[in-house]
TrEMBL record:
The active site is at Y125, F408. It comes from the Bacteria. This is GNAT family N-acetyltransferase. Keywords: Acyltransferase, Transferase. InterPro entries: Acetyltransf_17, Acetyltransferase_Eis, Acyl_CoA_acyltransferase, Eis_dom, GNAT_dom, NAcTrfase_Eis, SCP2_sterol-bd_dom_sf. Gene3D superfamilies: 3.40.630.30, SCP2 sterol-binding domain (3.30.1050.10). Acetyl-CoA binds at V82, G83, V84, R90, Q91, G92, V93, L94, S95, S120, E121.
Length: 408
C-alpha cells in the first residue's frame, strides 16, 4: 500500500473515493461551489493506494484557527474527509493515513501543535490521540414561551435591549455574517475560524451553504451588526435555528425573543446551544426548554504538549507534574506545569507525577470543557494524591465554557 499527498488534479478521484467509503453519491455542485467538499485544500489531502494504484482511502485537513482559553488564536488543522473503502477496512489503512497525516502536520512548518476533528463515530479517534473537548446541545422551546424578565416584549422581540432586529435573506447579508462570526469566534474559546474562501465557495452547512435561509440580524444602538440567527420554518410549523451567533449574552437573548415570537410557529429548535447556556433559566418555566441530543463536537489532539500548555491562558495559579503517554505515536513525556498570573511554563521533569494520563485525555481537558476530576473518576486519568484532581480542575477551568458550532 502507498499513501501519497494529493494535488488539485486529484480532486475528482478524492471526492469519488470518500463518497464510496461512506456509501453515498457526490452531489452536483452549484455555480461557484456550494458543497461541503468545495473548500478542500488538496495540498493537505492524502490518498491511500492499493496495488495497481487503486484509491482505497482518503484523509484531508482544513487550515483553521482555534481560539483558546485566555483569547490566544492558534493554527489548528481540521481533519476531515477520512474514509476507507469497505473492501479495505481493518487492514491498517486508516492507522497508516492518520500516522502520516500527524507527521505532515508536525513537518509543515506552520507552527501547528495540535489538530482537531469532528468524529463521525466516537469509538474511532481516541486510539489516534484525539479526545472530545467541546459539547453542544439541542434546545426546543414552545412558541411564545414567556421570559422571566417582567419587562414587556417589544414588537421586534428585543424587550429592553437597546438594539434592533432586522430580517434579511441569506443571499443579501454575506458580509454581515462573515464579519459577525469572525468577531464572535475570536472571543469564544473552542471556536474555529471560517476562512474567507469558505464563505466565497459557500462550503459547509447553513448559513455558509447556499441553502435558503432567513437571517435575523441584531444591530446595536449605533446600528452596527453584533449578532445573527440563521433560521427556516419546516414541517409541523417548526422554526429551526441553524446557529445563533452573538457577541454577548444580551444579544443572544434578543435574538431568542425574536424567533420565539415568530408568527405561525409551534415551536423553536435551537440546534447548537452550549450545555450551560443560560437561555433555559431566562424562561418563566424552566421546563419549557427541552434539552436533547447533547453530544461531543470538537475533538482535540495535542502534538507538542509544552507548546500547547503555554499557548492557552489560565484562571488559577499552581504547579502540576503531568505524565503523558502517546501510545499511537509511541511517545512519552513528563512535564512540570507551572502557572502564575494567567501564564504557564511547561518543561520536562523527572519529578514524581501528580497525574498520569493519555494524550487523548489531555486533549479533552485542554480547552476547559471537560473537568480532569471527571476523567479521574472515570478511570481515564490516574491521580497520585488526593489534591491532584481538584488542583487540575482549578487550573484547566476556562473563563468561559468552550463551544464550537462550525461544521467541517
Amino acid at each position: 500500500m502507498e499513501i501519497r499527498s494529493t494535488t488539485g488534479e486529484d480532486l475528482e478521484v478524492f471526492v469519488e473515493t470518500v463518497h464510496t467509503a461512506f456509501g453515498r453519491f457526490p452531489e452536483t455542485p452549484v455555480d461557484g461551489g456550494g458543497l461541503w467538499w468545495s473548500a478542500l485544500e488538496m495540498d493537505r489531502g492524502l490518498l491511500a493506494l492499493a496495488e495497481g494504484g487503486r484509491p482505497v482511502g482518503t484523509a484531508a485537513a482544513h487550515s483553521f484557527e482555534l481560539t483558546l482559553p485566555g483569547g490566544a488564536v492558534v493554527p489548528a488543522p481540521g481533519v476531515t474527509a477520512v474514509g476507507v473503502l469497505p473492501t479495505h477496512r481493518r487492514q491498517g489503512v486508516l492507522s497508516a493515513m492518520m500516522r502520516q497525516q500527524l507527521a505532515e502536520i508536525r513537518d509543515r512548518g506552520r507552527g501547528e501543535f495540535l489538530a482537531v476533528l469532528l468524529a463521525s463515530e466516537a469509538s474511532i479517534y481516541g486510539r489516534f490521540g484525539y479526545g472530545p473537548a467541546t459539547y453542544t446541545t439541542r434546545l426546543t422551546v414552545p412558541h411564545g414561551a414567556a421570559f422571566a424578565d417582567p419587562r414587556a416584549d417589544r414588537a421586534d422581540g428585543t424587550a429592553g435591549d437597546s438594539g434592533s432586529v432586522e430580517v434579511l435573506r441569506r443571499d443579501a447579508c454575506g458580509e454581515i455574517l462573515e464579519d459577525v462570526y469572525d468577531r464572535y469566534r475570536r472571543a469564544q474559546p473552542g471556536a474555529l475560524s471560517r476562512p474567507r474562501r469558505w464563505w466565497a465557495l459557500r462550503a459547509g452547512q447553513p448559513p455558509v451553504s447556499p441553502e435558503p435561509r432567513y437571517i435575523a440580524v441584531h444591530r446595536d444602538a449605533d446600528g452596527i451588526p453584533d449578532g445573527y440567527a440563521s433560521y427556516a420554518i419546516g414541517e409541523a410549523q417548526t422554526l429551526t435555528v441553524d446557529e445563533t451567533i452573538a457577541t454577548d449574552d444580551s444579544v443572544f437573548t434578543a435574538l431568542a425573543r425574536f424567533v420565539l415570537g415568530h408568527d405561525l410557529v409551534s415551536r423553536v429548535v435551537f440546534k447548537h446551544v452550549p450545555p450551560e447556556h443560560p437561555l433555559r433559566w431566562q424562561l418563566a418555566d424552566l421546563r419549557a426548554g427541552d434539552v436533547s441530543e447533547e453530544t461531543d463536537w470538537l475533538w482535540v489532539r495535542l502534538l507538542d504538549v509544552p507548546r500547547a500548555l503555554t499557548a492557552r491562558g489560565w484562571c488559577a495559579d499552581g504547579e502540576l507534574v503531568l505524565d503523558v503517554q502517546d501510545p499511537f505515536l509511541g511517545e512519552h513525556g513528563r512535564y512540570e506545569l507551572t502557572v502564575r498570573d494567567g501564564k504557564a511554563d511547561c518543561v520536562p521533569t523527572d519529578r514524581e507525577p501528580d497525574l498520569s494520563l493519555d494524550v487523548r485525555d489531555l486533549g479533552s481537558v485542554y480547552l476547559g470543557g471537560t473537568a480532569p476530576s471527571t476523567l479521574v473518576r472515570a478511570g481515564h486519568i490516574r491521580a497520585h494524591h488526593p489534591g491532584a484532581a481538584p488542583l487540575a480542575d482549578a487550573l484547566f477551568r476556562a473563563e468561559r465554557s468552550p463551544h464550537c458550532l462550525h461544521w467541517f
